[in-house]
Amino acid sequence: MPRTKRFSMEQKKARWGWIFVTPSLVFFAVFSFYPIFNAFYLSFFRKNLLSLKPPAFIGFGNYTYLFSSPLFKESVVNTAIFTFGTFVPLLVLSLILAAFIMSRKRFQKFYQMVLYSPAALSSVVAAMIWLLIFDPRGLANQGLNLLFSTSGVNYHWLSNDTMLRLSTIIVYVWKYVGYFTVIFVAGIGAIPNTLHEAALIDGADRWQDFWHITFPLLKPTTLLVSVMAMIQCLKTFSTQYLFTTAGAPRQPINVLTLNIYYTAIKDHSIGRASAMSVLLFLVMLVFTWLQLRLSRTEEVTYM
Amino acid sequence: MKRLSCLLVLALVMSLSLGAHAAKVIEITYWTHTDDNRTTIENKYIAEFEKMYPDVKVKRVVNEASKMGDLVLTAFSANRGPDLFNLPIEQEYGYIMQNRVSPVDYAAIGYKNADALKADYMKGTFEAVTKGGKIYGLPLELTNWCIYINKKIFRSAGLDPEKDYPRTWEQMADISEKLVIRNGDIIMRRGFDFRYPYYLVSLLPMVEQLGGQLISDDGKKAIVNDQAWLKVLKFMKEWGPHGRNLGSPTYPAPRKIWNKDNNDMAMCLSGFYQQGRLRIDNPAFFDSKEWMVVPFPKFKDAVKDVACSYYGHFLMVNAQSSKDKQEMAWKLAQYMLSHPMEYLEVVNIIIPRKDMLSSKEFKANPYMDVFMGDMDRGHSVFLHENGYQFERFIGDAVQAVMLSNVSEQQALATLRQRIQEVLDEQ
What we know:
Radius of gyration of chain B: 25 Å
Structural class of chain B: alpha+beta
Oligomer: heterodimer
Shape of chain A: flat
CATH class of the largest domain in chain B: Alpha Beta
Largest sheet of chain A: 2 strands, antiparallel
Order of helices and strands of chain A: HEEHHHHHHHHHHHH
CATH topology of chain A: MetI-like fold
Number of domains of chain A: 1
CATH architecture of chain A: Orthogonal Bundle
Number of helices of chain A: 13
């Protein structure tokens, strides 16, 4: 008599779990893990993207070149300026906006939708809109001239080094502030009302309630948002790319991703571009590890 | 049962024969950039070609011009490049150097050899696509830029366009000063402005006018004749917001707004194709005779008379395509290009075939003499495997002096160091 193998309920669940997860795993393996491993591999070779010759192994040659390259250093500095210049206002503004939305009795969803809408917009479209605004004859100059009661002052949004960096930061904050606001809204919404009610009974005003109840309990969300924002900023590309193709100088906004693109696609040096990608990946990996580690220590549970 | 078996065998034989027939069909993939006028005539030629060769199917894929280079490169790097394609020659040069494209199949296109092919085209047409005596592309267009002038704007500034148009770069700056209208620092109307990203086509000839070169003849030394470079960089600095404030790369592209005749752009640098676009964008202005074309200026103390460089798009065939596909792709390219007059009339691009260039119809086109005169004064755009990298470095130098107020000496030192590093690495 043939023996039929009997699975326990747990095993059956696990089997179905694998069936559901497998397509995603295959997708990630093909479109994420393979390119990552391939980039690691290629970073040790000299390879022209167009050449049919096999890549030449050069060990850490690409890495040693990068660490002595002024252009690479320039990209690292630009990326750092952009990342820190963007993630701080992103974090502060999204927290303020989330607190504002949660303090409203009506139209909470509407405010979220309005703020979130730029995030749904393609980065290319967003950059194009802002290019028109930052045009010397555009709204940005007109607005500041109106504000300062001046006439015809060109604030060089797309040409002066500092203003150009500020312009890219403005575009990014505008585009992603709604996205992080929604995360903060969810975080604030998860704090039990009983805590706020207890604080109010104890005589706390709204400001004290925010600083002593909401803000400390939002630590995990704040951490999550700050790391997510930082990683997002490190990956910035479209804004800088479109601004430079529209005539803005490359040097002040030549971030790592832009440098990777030019090195691989325009200069055909895929080995060197892979080495840059690996370094960027490692930086992001460190931030992710930090997030996971810190979020474990900052976990908040409501009994 | 027997009947069923017979039916199965019959079906198998039929499917095999159909399969054999299908295998005979040669599908050629042709990638090109967007141009509605060209699409219309090329679709017609493709239909005619497919009629002439019933076993050939052509798949014409249109890509955005700005993305075309990246798409073709990505496809080739994955060994999935199209059978036939066109790109600007500066990009195609790398494909020739890396043996990714096949030499022209002279027999397939009805020529005995390379010399016979060259004999049908303008002198120098194939210089950019020749390696080891073999020709690697057929010219879809050859373009050079001259100065388009809006006569009304000239007159509004008290200038006579026929007499006062700029012959030298010094005059160009002075005349632009008369034409420019500003609201404070903000330019509302420009006299002239450059085509900033295309430094190899239009800025390098300015350096050459003064005796400078990007790299030495032996290809080992970056920047020849510092004085020539410094003068051009100084000129650009003076042109920008830290100098006479006549223009800047951050204002809209001149040739796009010139067509609108909105009193915001008096002169722009563009090719013969601008007329075709003007005819579509602004037919009233096109017919008004209120515009004219003049030659590319030179510096007052120029040591060489060099006009804007000409560049081209060449049809090329993937070296990895099968032999029969390569042969048919060359035949298709040749068939399409055998209608140069239609390309000129409908698309406003010049296929430099001698029979067309010497025709009355060609010469009757507005300002064709100016374009052809400058073609004689100029040469093919600077070509190098790292050409795009060099162009970017020149762009950085120009932007540094114009927008970041860096000194010409410092910008030139950085430019030299960057280009030399690339040359040394080779």
